[in-house]
Specification:
Elements (H helix, E strand, L loop, with lengths): L8 H16 L4 H8 L3 H8 L7 H10 L5 H12 L15 H12 L2 E6 L10 H8 L8 H14 L11 E6 H5 L5 H14 L5 E6 L12 E6 L7 E6 L2 E5 L2 H16 L4 H14 L1
Parallel strand pairs: 1-2, 2-3
Antiparallel strand pairs: 1-4, 4-5, 5-6
Helix pairs in contact: 2-3, 4-5, 7-8, 10-12
């Protein structure tokens, strides 16, 4: 079987989870390979997802490892069987791989929670707001690179409007609402967009006010993607040196707790919307 030319973060996750199941079973790669009737080299390729793996083989390995979590096995088998080429692949030669992984994770998420301190979350940005942000990127972007990113961001937003959209919770600090990226008119239009899109039943915008008494985070932007089962959740942490995907059990538990604590200090949905209206009037 020929090796994959493109291995996405989501497909790599299949191999990661199979390796974790093997390690929990106390088996070496060589032992697992013998039980599967293959070579250790092939087992390494399976765990690195260098080659496609069938849903049937996923189930066979889960049986070898004594896994009894049927929901997890079914979810991994579904991921292995999914050969859909997503719209984001058209950007494969134009944008960084991590942006394509982000779009794929959003597309398959059963729910999303994000938190932002300075910026409006990407899925809620207007094109003009996004353009203003991309113009300030470090290192700088050329005009056509900016337009590719805007086009990609707008297409990502389609998940919020599909027939069965995932629940989307945005935890936004008041600071992000008061920043005037692109100038007053762009900022005012962005706030108006937030008030309009918050009317959708699947979207909840929760604001942390300046007069809050606690702030349980370091300030990094966090995107939490809920999988078919909690074990397959993924977190993206956005830092100055780039984004990082997190999927270890302990890390997922930590970020769930961080988001829970952050949401606990937000205003309710109605009060958050009132504050957005108030800031828009003052802008």
């Amino acid at each position: 079987m020929a090796p994959r030319t493109v291995v996405t973060a989501r497909r790599l996750r299949i191999g990661v989870e199979l390796r974790r199941l093997r390690e929990r079973a106390g088996m070496t790669a060589a032992e697992a390979a013998r039980a599967l009737g293959t070579t250790q080299a092939q087992m390494s390729n399976i765990e690195a997802n260098r080659f496609g793996i069938s849903a049937e083989r996923v189930r066979t390995l889960a049986h070898i490892y004594g896994c009894t979590d049927i929901a997890l096995i079914d979810a991994l088998a579904d991921m292995a069987a999914d050969r859909t080429r997503g719209w984001w692949e058209e950007y494969r030669d134009s944008l960084p791989t991590r942006l394509l992984d982000l779009a794929e994770l959003e597309h398959h998420a059963t729910a999303l929670r994000v938190t932002q301190v300075i910026n409006i979350p990407g899925l809620l940005q207007t094109p003009e707001h996004a353009r203003a942000l991309f113009r300030e990127a470090v290192p700088g972007l050329r005009p056509h690179e900016i337009e590719y990113r805007i086009s990609h961001r707008i297409k990502r937003q389609a998940i919020l409007h599909r027939e069965q959209p995932p629940p989307y919770t945005a935890i936004v600090h008041e600071a992000a609402l008061r920043m005037q990226f692109g100038g007053r008119d762009v900022a005012k239009a962005q706030l108006k967009h937030l008030t309009e899109i918050s009317a959708q039943a699947n979207i909840s915008i929760r604001v942390i006010p300046f007069d809050g008494t606690s702030f349980p985070t370091t300030g990094h932007a966090v995107d939490y993607f809920h999988g078919l089962v909690p074990t397959l959740d993924t977190v993206e942490v956005d830092t100055a040196h780039g984004s990082e995907l997190v999927d270890a059990v302990g890390q997922l538990e930590k970020y769930r707790l961080v988001l829970d604590r952050m949401q606990a200090v937000t205003l309710g949905p109605a009060a958050s919307l009132d504050l957005i209206h108030h800031i828009a009037q003052d802008t």
